[in-house]
Design brief:
30% of the residues lie in helices and 15% in strands. The chain is an alpha+beta fold and 179 residues long. The strands form two sheets. It has a three-stranded antiparallel β-sheet, sandwiched between helices. The protein has a two-stranded parallel ribbon with strand order 4-5. It is globular, with a radius of gyration of 20 Å.
Length: 179
């Protein structure tokens, strides 16, 4: 039996970046799709206020680390002050999961004068001043994500374009503010 293969000058499709834009980056550059064990996926990073209402959202590719979205997330979500003055961007404290636990991320938060409420990973030294009671409030963000995923378009990402998906997330966040 004779096997024939057409000569090609280009590498195979799986040998490089994905055809969907490959490496999704923060804020719609690329399509925020990345390879993971389950196929293409997107990470949705949220910033919420103390009551659990959404303030800002950032998309990254599924395999990207959380640190890449931290700066963009902290730069969004300004809160107007009563009376005169610039809007307040900086929270007093920021709670995050272990994915945000790294020395550079903690250093960036401290440069902004934000107290990190992030547990350390097993391979890092323990933080003696870690506030467990404040970390328990992070469940409000988890519940916010669950409420957002009640909208099927957000849970399954029907949209091909990252800008369209981020628009649907923004629409879902607006609906949560109205209810």
């Amino acid at each position: 039996m004779r096997r024939w293969c057409a000569p090609t000058s280009t590498p195979l499709a799986h040998a490089g970046l994905a055809p969907s834009g490959g490496e999704g980056t923060v804020e719609g550059v690329g399509e925020a799709l990345g390879r993971s064990q389950g196929g293409f996926s997107t990470k949705l990073h949220l910033r919420a206020e103390g009551g659990g209402k959404p303030m800002a959202a950032v998309l990254t590719a599924g395999e990207r680390h959380e640190q890449f979205a931290l700066d963009a997330l902290m730069d969004k979500g300004a809160v107007r002050r009563p009376g005169r003055g610039r809007p307040r961007l900086r929270p007093r404290r920021a709670a995050g999961d272990r994915g945000y636990s790294s020395p550079p991320a903690r250093r960036r938060l401290k440069q902004r004068r934000v107290e990190p409420v992030i547990p350390t990973r097993k391979d890092q030294p323990r933080q003696p001043d870690f506030d467990k009671a404040a970390y328990r409030e992070r469940n409000k963000v988890e519940r916010l994500i669950n409420r957002l995923k009640q909208y099927r378009r957000i849970a399954t990402r029907y949209e091909k374009r990252a800008t369209n998906y981020l628009a649907m997330v923004t629409l879902g966040m607006t609906m949560l503010w109205l209810t």
